[in-house]
Specification:
Layout: H1 3-18, H2 21-28, H3 32-46, E1 51-53, E2 58-60, H4 62-94
Antiparallel strand pairs: 1-2
Helix pairs in contact: 1-2, 1-3, 1-4, 2-3
Length: about 100
């Protein structure tokens, strides 16, 4: 796995959680077209459709749901590790009173 795939997986998880490309883009602070491109690129590289899209909704396919279930703990661990690091860096820079 490369860094691009990791960011694409994070985008996929956000789209699946929000059920919207626009809401995911707002949450990630990126353009909706970047969200769409990330998901499409991930699907192309894996050779499988991960999201079912209609004009009114977005939902994970069965393959997407299985992938997200497997990845959810790892993505949560990454978020936790980054938050802990941010706390350590804050304490190192500002100390305690």
């Amino acid at each position: 796995m490369n860094r691009i795939q990791l960011s694409q997986l994070a985008v996929l998880a956000t789209v699946a959680e929000t059920r919207s490309f626009r809401k995911a883009a707002a949450e990630l602070a990126i353009a909706p077209s970047a969200v769409s491109h990330a998901v499409a690129s991930l699907e192309a590289s894996l050779g499988v459709r991960l999201l079912a899209r209609t004009t009114r909704s977005v939902a994970p396919t069965e393959e997407g749901r299985r992938l997200l279930q497997t990845l959810a703990p790892a993505l949560a661990d990454i978020d936790t590790a980054l938050a802990a690091l941010a706390g350590v860096m804050y304490a190192a820079n500002y100390g305690t009173v």
